[in-house]
Amino acid sequence: MEITEIRISLRDDNKLRAFASITLDDCFVIRGLKIIKGAKGAFVAMPSRKRPDGTYQDIAHPINNDTRSWMEQKIIDAYEEEVEKLELEAGIEVSKE
Q: What's the burial of 80, exposed, middle or buried (CB within 10 Å: 0-12/13-18/19+)?
């Protein structure tokens, strides 16, 4: 399995840094991933929905830690590239964390 496309949509929010969409093997899209500023740096939250009891349930997610780490690193790398691109174009510095 390969991530063949990553789209990043930056946000100007205190914790929510960006939304991401990924395409797997040019044939399956996952939308609604969130890049969140956490205490230990940025992390990727999988798309989820709110349940009637107020908790959240992931709609799509990796089923093992190796896949989660691989996917998260690819998405964070794409996010950082998008931030660097914005900084170069606008001549500003954006916090990545």
A: middle
The β-bridge partners of 37 are 42
The SS3 of residue 7 is strand
Q: In this structure, are strands 41-45 and 28-38 parallel, antiparallel, or unpaired?
A: antiparallel
Domain 3-90 CATH superfamily = Stage V sporulation protein G (3.30.1120.40)
Six-digit token string for 97:
């964390």
| Tokens of residue 61, six digits | 């997610």
Reported pTM: 0.86
Listing DSSP states for 9-54 in one string gives: EE---SSEEEEEEEEETTTEEEEEEEEEEETTEEEEEPPEEE-TTS
Mean pLDDT, the chain, rounded, equals: 92
Which three-class secondary structure state does DSSP give residue 2? Answer: coil
| Tokens read off for 7 | 């789209």
